[in-house]
Amino acid sequence: MLRRQETPYNEWRMKNNLLLIGAALSLSSCSMILGPSTVDVTVIGVNDFHGNLLPTSFRVPDPADRTKTLTVQAGGVEAIGGILAEARKANPNTIFVGVGDMTGASPLISGLLRDEPTINALNGLGMAVNVVGNHEFDYGFAELQRYQKGGCNSNDAAKACKFNNTFEGAKFTYIASNVLDEKTGQPVLPAYKIVQVGNAKVAFVGAVLKDTPTVVTPAGVAGLKFEDEVKSINAAIPTIKRMGADAIVALVHQGGTSGDAFDIVNCKTLSGPIVDIAKNLDPAVSAIMTGHTHRGYNCLVPGPDGKDRTVIQGDALGHLLQRLDMTIDTRANRVTAIRASNVVVDAAKTPKDAAMTALVQKAKDLTDPIARTVIATLGVEQITRAAGPNGESLLGRVIADSQLAAAAPADKGGAVIALMNPGGIRADLPVNVPNASKQVTYGDAFTVQPFGNILTVITLTGAQIKAALEQQFDNPSAGSNRLLQVSRGFTYTWDNAKPKGDKVSEIKLGGQAIDPAASYRVVLNNFLADGGDGFTTFAQGTNRLGGDLDIDAFRAYLTSTTVTPDTTERIKRLN
């Protein structure tokens, strides 16, 4: 009979120890092949760029006396390219991202060419991903799809494919987790993108403000539904984790404001809609890069787990770049350290990107002949859009007067009142001072009014006018006001101490009280006429008549006379 051969215990132990040692050596060898488990990754982001290929004025704290500021020329794709080149040289694991509003409301150098120079510039700068902002919908979703895919089938054939004979589209990916098809309920854009950099997989998950339909021309978002930002981002997190992401960064085109300057690190003074979003996003999100409110900040907000995390935003127009320097443990799939900063894009001190210089020059060659045309001489060096305590701005009055002048003739609608949304006034006139000649060009005027909105005359009752004025308060959110700019001869009083719905009184036209039952012809741009910016009452207007483009009315008014802004108060504020 055969007997099983027994292995002596000492021999068995020796063999197993050798196996364990061999396994350990094998793992060590694999570890050396795979490299270290930690990776340093730099993420650089730009928000609310709005096609500003060239630098513009920006105020920064004076390092010698922080109670004062200095004006620098900041932004522009040449300097942004220089900063990115330096960052990539220092750390090849650098990712460039957008936090919305890369296009739309753009100056003439980009806007006259349907923002194709901006898309091409961002491609050349190596942008990997951009969460859509509200302005990405300015021209409608079909045009946004063209921006992604390329081609010349645009809804503005006069401007499309004029920068190049063909348009290749964005090499970066537009994302948004909360934009759905209204009929099917299905997402129309990817919720996230995972970028491989070194040994790390960095996931960028995005959302645009859920109130986008209130700040975009209704035609621009027709057929789309915008869901809650937190709910939508959190729903994407489990899938992102399954995909093996080592770090998750949220790109949210919604923001807030801070009482601290943009260069204060880890501020605790952030307020606004982004705070509630940040407090409720999944703890797996390591940092939140934001936009929309055009204000630089670098703050900490506690998440649902009670741990602070970075919430950062740069200034608009490329003045500041958001920067995150992260150390990522790729074995543990987590961020072990993060440092955040806002980088001033000082155009005078930053090396220029040669490819961007060539791109800018090409765009200028195509648009400068139009931009440089002097159209008017002002009575002052500059008319500003800065609003006073009552909500009025000098430039707002001028624009409202220009629209009334264009629509007052009987054949143009017979308007007696003009109302202008402040968000549609994009710059001072002209943008930069000093301006000793007091001259303004078509490019200056276009920068102020770049949307190409159509002036629309509607009939409203006096009661509807009051109802619309009451919608200025707690707009776009509680505690915020969005004061319409009004034309000459139209006046009213608002009381900040009164409850919402009862703030406005003494509404007059030509010194006479508005009759709630009477009808009045009111001119506004088509964005407002369709109920934009939360002014839903305007959508009830009747007898609509389309007219001139807002930029054409503005230019005609500036050309017709030497414009000196009216300083007479049209809106009176109490309390």
Question: Any idea what the shape is?
Answer: globular
- Could you tell me the number of beta strands? 27
First-to-last CA distance: 109 Å
Profile the largest sheet: 6 strands, mixed
Structural class: alpha/beta
For the CA atoms, what is the radius of gyration?
28 Å
Tally the helices. Answer: 14
Q: Runs with pLDDT <50, length 5+?
A: 1-34
Strand content: 25-35%
The share of residues in helices is: 25-40%
The average pLDDT is 91
Strand arrangement in the largest pleated sheet: 6-5-4-1-15-16
Model description:
The chain is of the alpha/beta class and 575 residues long. The chain has 14 helices and 27 strands. Strands 6-5-4-1-15-16 form a six-stranded mixed β-sheet. A hairpin with a 4-residue loop joins β15 and β16 (334-344). α4 (116-124) runs antiparallel to α9 (354-371) and α10 (394-407) packs across α14. The longest helix has 26 residues, at 9-34. The radius of gyration is 28 Å and the shape is globular.
Layout of helices and strands, plus pairs?
Layout: H1 9-34, E1 38-46, E2 56-62, E3 65-74, H2 77-90, E4 94-98, H3 108-111, H4 116-124, E5 127-131, H5 141-149, E6 173-175, E7 179-181, E8 192-197, E9 200-208, H6 212-215, E10 224-226, H7 229-242, E11 247-253, H8 273-280, E12 285-290, E13 297-302, E14 308-313, E15 320-329, E16 334-344, H9 354-371, E17 374-377, H10 394-407, E18 417-420, E19 439-441, H11 442-448, E20 454-461, H12 462-470, E21 485-486, E22 490-495, E23 504-509, E24 512-513, E25 519-525, H13 526-529, E26 542-549, H14 550-560, E27 571-574
Parallel strand pairs: 1-4, 4-5, 5-6, 9-11, 11-12, 12-14, 18-25, 22-27
Antiparallel strand pairs: 1-15, 2-3, 7-10, 8-9, 13-14, 15-16, 17-19, 18-21, 20-25, 20-26, 22-23, 23-24
Helix pairs in contact: 4-9, 10-14
